[in-house]
Design goal:
- The complex is a heterodimer.
- Chain A is mostly helical.
- Chain A contains 3 helices and 1 strand; from the N terminus they run βααα.
- Chain A has a single domain (about 5-90), classed as Helix Hairpins, CATH 1.10.287.3510.
- In chain A, helix 2 packs antiparallel against helix 3 (about 60-90).
- The N and C termini of chain A lie far apart (about 60 Å).
- Helices cover about 75% and strands about 0% of the residues of chain B.
- Chain B has helices at about 5-25, 30-50, 50-75, 90-115, 130-140, 145-165; one strand spanning about 120.
- In chain B, helix 1 runs antiparallel to helix 2 (about 30-50) and helix 2 packs antiparallel against helix 3 (about 50-75).
- The longest helix of chain B has 26 residues, at about 50-75.
- The radius of gyration of chain B is 21 Å and the shape is extended.
- At the A-B interface, strand 1, helix 1, helix 2 and helix 3 of A face helix 1, helix 2, helix 3, helix 4 and strand 1 of B.
- Strand 1 of chain A pairs antiparallel with strand 1 of chain B, so a sheet runs across the interface.
Chain lengths: ~100, ~170
């Protein structure tokens, strides 16, 4: 396995994945899939962090990715608990149904 | 022949197609499995970039723990077959347009500002060994010790919060 890959390619893949994550948040109405799209966005930013850490030759980017993963795990635990609680009261996880506060 | 670049292109196509599958799949379970595939592709990117610890954490924490939690909740709720509600008619075109604007913006920044078109060579034999993990651990437990400890408090709070949120109230019918 030999050769080189430009840094730009990694950042481009990261940008495309992030864009797809935002698109998923905007067009899907299943709360679980909206959550998965947020995970996709976090993952895309992690990829950019690691690519920049490699190109600058420092490990700080990898440390930050480690913290982002921890925060993502905490976010998923609380978020899924919220979704379960909402499903218990409204019997739906469609984000359009959660409009009780609408005037 | 630049075999690393060929590997990269195959992985990039797989990652983008699996993200597309996440966007388009009707069933939440298929979406979760597409996301697992995407996480695996990104983990191999991390290996190419010389971050073996992050790659394995990606597999165990993301593709393992987090996605199993997702699948568990999907099956618990049994909500994989959602009845189609009527959408706002202009929602989808507007969202696609805004996402295209975001992509063009980031692409513009990428090719205007990122003049440092560094070629990332293959990780030399030294990078993907125990030594890089040792460097990472030294940094984590010296320079970043306080954030690391705060992380443990964050995880504890998340655990307690999840338990409190899903706890049935006494007397309330579940």
């Amino acid at each position: 396995m030999e050769g080189t890959i430009p840094l730009t390619y990694f950042i481009a893949v990261s940008a495309v994945l992030f864009m797809m994550g935002t698109l998923g948040v905007l067009i899907r109405r299943n709360a679980l899939i909206v959550f998965m799209s947020i995970e996709l966005m976090l993952n895309a930013s992690n990829l950019a962090f690691v690519a920049f850490a490699r190109s600058y030759g420092v490990l700080t980017g990898q440390i930050f990715v480690f913290f982002v993963m921890t925060v993502a795990a905490a976010e998923v635990a609380v978020g899924l608990a919220l979704i379960v609680a909402i499903f218990r009261s409204k019997h739906s996880i469609d984000v359009d149904q959660m409009s009780s506060l609408k005037g | 022949m630049n075999s690393l670049l060929i590997l990269f292109i195959i992985l990039a196509v797989a990652a983008i197609l699996s993200a597309l599958g996440l966007l388009l799949s009707r069933s939440a379970i298929y979406a979760a499995l597409f996301l697992v595939l995407n996480f695996a592709c990104v983990a191999i990117f991390y290996l190419i970039l010389g971050a073996p610890f992050i790659a394995l954490t990606q597999i165990t924490v993301y593709a393992g723990a987090i996605m199993v939690l997702f699948l568990f909740v999907i099956m618990l709720l049994g909500a994989e077959k959602l009845p189609g509600t009527k959408a706002i008619p202009w929602q989808k075109p507007l969202a696609i347009g805004l996402s295209a604007v975001l992509l063009v913006e980031s692409g513009f920044l990428l090719f205007q500002r990122l003049k440092l078109a560094v070629d990332l060579a293959q990780p030399d034999a030294k990078v993907n060994t125990m030594d890089s993990i040792r460097q990472l651990a030294l940094m984590l437990f010296n320079q970043y010790l306080l954030p690391f400890e705060i992380t443990s408090i964050l995880l504890l709070v998340a655990m307690v919060g999840a338990i409190v949120l899903t706890k049935q109230e006494k007397g309330a019918a579940g």
